[in-house]
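Human: I wish I could look at a protein chain and see how it folds. This is the protein in question:
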Amino acid sequence: MPRVKKKSHENLTSQNIKHVISLLNPTNSETKAITKREACSILNISYNTTRLDKILVDFHEQKEYRARRVSQNRGRPARPDEIQDIVREYLSGENVSNISKGLYRSPSFVKSILEKIGVPQRPTQLEGRKQEYYLPEECVAEDFEEGEVVWSANHHAPAVIDKKLSKEHQDSKPGIQTVNYVEKYGTHCYSIYVRQKPSSEDLWDMPDVGGFYAFSLSYDLGKLKHLEEYGIDLAKL
């Protein structure tokens, strides 16, 4: 059966379809099942029982297919292309759950790959993004080159080194108060450009990567060069 095409206003997320199925088939005998008209309303689709049935059948088929593919992949080592997809998508902002679904692997499999090869971790909750995360040993460094793609532990995103704020560089900028960061903080400070992909919900949906400038001490920045041996093009993050 061909996949059901989703219209922009329809709420056909997996979570919402599961919710509708549970309401159509209550496990409690005392609970009254909703009507198909009510089911269409919850999914925000026009009242059409044939299309509703197709949506539910399509959902079950996808669920069964995914379970079959996950079972086939269970126990198999990660392929090089899978490692590339995991690292590239995760560093670009995708969450572990969606990555695992796309690869027909378990979330624990994806997490183990990220930890094994030293990929910086991101907080899963919005509140956690206000906190800094420890960098893997492979990422720890004190010196970075201009133009180098790094990981910002403060912003939980890829960044590009703009300038090292050395005393000489600051002295060359009239009107800027010179700060000896090594003496004050025990490490260098860098001007960085944090990469940020525009949200698809933005008014102007631009596919290119945007971002903003920020300052960061070196111990809040992580090297990513070790990921190039896995085929990761850091310039495209």
